[in-house]
Amino acid sequence: MNQTRIHQNVSLKKYHTFAMEVKADYFVEAQTIEDIINGYQTFPDLPKMFLGGGSNVIFVNDFHGLIIHNKLMGRKILKETSEYVIAKIGAGENWHRLVLWAVSQNLGGIENLALIPGSVGASPVQNIGAYGVEVKDVIQEVEVFNLHTQKLETLTNQDCQFGYRDSIFKRDLKGKVLITNVTFKFNKAKHHTFNTDYKGLSEALESVRQIDVEVVSKAVIKIRQSKLPDPQSHPNSGSFFKNPVVDEDLMKNILANHPNIPSFDLGNNKFKIPAAWLIDQAGLKGVKNETETLGTNPTQPLVLIHYGGATGDELREFIDFIRTTVDNKFGVTLETEVNLV
Ligand SMILES: Cc1cc2nc3c(=O)[nH]c(=O)nc-3n(C[C@H](O)[C@H](O)[C@H](O)COP(=O)(O)OP(=O)(O)OC[C@H]3O[C@@H](n4cnc5c(N)ncnc54)[C@H](O)[C@@H]3O)c2cc1C
Predict the structure, then answer these.
(1) What's the average model confidence in pLDDT over 57-66?
(2) What is the pLDDT, as a whole number, of residue 2?
(3) What percent of the chain has pLDDT over 90?
(4) Which residues form the catalytic set?
(5) CA distances (Å), 130 to each of 107, 164, 257, 297, in order?
(6) Which of 228, 270, 310, 318 has the least C-beta neighbours within 10 A?
(7) How far apart are CA 65 and CA 240, in angstroms?
(8) What is the largest CA-CA distance in the chain?
(9) Ligand 1 within 6 A of 90 CB?
(10) Among the residues of 210-300, which ranges form H helices?
(11) Which of 84, 119, 128, 82 is nearest to 102 (CA)?
(12) pLDDT band for position 36 (50/70/90)?
């Protein structure tokens, strides 16, 4: 058995992109399955949490348990044909580096998902998506370590029950399995259908004569860099709230008072509304809390910025303030996309 180093009283500030000043009682870098088993055996009764890049998690309090930082690496081609490549990727690998690798190999499928922070292992958890593409479109299988049976198991794409920013890993399997590898099917560029209809991306590519994976990924990177604050300089967790889905009656009510509201018809009398628009129209773009430790981003109000020194209570109050203001104006309840721990 390898020697697993378990650290005590570890600051989590640099392990999550919102950078709250909180600590974990115990912390382990899991480079092997053995590290995970050792962590579990050392602290059978303590709460445990898996952590990737910490870009979709905010620690609002000290964590009185064991943080298992996923560092399970590896990249393996399982199959290659003239049309596609099947690749199995370690859950601890960096997501954006995987995108760059796929682009360098001229493989299509995840070019629209460039520059999303975080790990490969977390990508199925909330079915990451951007610019009209979701990771579920390229996932074949997800390998997990079942913490109860202590065995590796494989889930098919269907088993993962993917939805909008949702999967079985956020529900029935939350805390019960650790994702160890994800298997993707990438198309060779000649056989790939690009998804460039999304507003912003189609405009950026208007003058481009020949679309390829590199051109699309570079356009996505450029748009994202111009719109989203870099967590390194402005700690944030990306989109803080999900885009709410409302039924036809509520949509009609809102339209009566706000005829310019953008919405997307999902069918079945359901409509998706951009949360950023609601927050903006509620007058909350660029606002700060009383202590000026937190604020909505002045250009993209769906992103909350931590200016430093915020407490968990201040964050909760600020979230409540945003939700109540939006609810009072539109009758729409915002749900957080980020996991508060
Ligand atoms: C600037 C910025 C931009 C972003 N843009 C987007 C975007 O365009 N689209 C989008 O979908 N998301 C976006 N996000 C959110 C985030 O990047 C994704 O959700 C990402 O997949 C999180 O990866 P992570 O490794 O950081 O996960 P973490 O934050 O570490 O973990 C997220 C959740 O997954 C669980 N988890 C992590 N790893 C595993 C594992 N191996 N097994 C089981 N459970 C696990 C954790 O316990 C936690 O509940 C953005 C975030 C930021 C900061």
Answers:
(1) 96
(2) 60
(3) 91
(4) 165, 239, 337
(5) 18, 11, 30, 19
(6) 270
(7) 25
(8) 66
(9) no
(10) 213-227, 248-257, 275-281
(11) 84
(12) very high
Per residue in 132-156, pLDDT tens? 999 999 999 999 999 889 899 999 9
Is the distance from CB of 130 to CB of 113 less than 8 angstroms? yes
How many angstroms is it from 236 CA to the middle of ligand 1? 12
Q: What is the pTM of this model?
A: 0.91
CA–centroid distance, 173 to ligand 1, in Å, is 16
User: Average model confidence (pLDDT) for the chain?
Assistant: 95
Sign of CA dihedral 98, 99, 104, 105: positive
By the 8 A CB rule, do 233 and 17 touch? no
The response to whether residue 53 sits with its C-beta less than 6 Å from ligand 1 reads yes
Q: Are 195 and 112 in contact (CB under 8 A)?
A: yes
For a ligand 1 pocket test, name from 116, 169, 172, 299 the mutation site with the most ligand atoms within 8 angstroms of its C-beta.
Answer: 116
Residue 200: its pLDDT value, please? 87
CA of 238 to the centre of ligand 1 (A): 9
Task: Answer yes or no: is the C-beta of 181 below 6 A from any ligand 1 atom.
Answer: no
Q: Does 58 sit in the ligand 1 pocket, CB within 6 Å?
A: no
Q: For residues 322 and 197, which has the higher predicted lDDT (pLDDT)?
A: 322
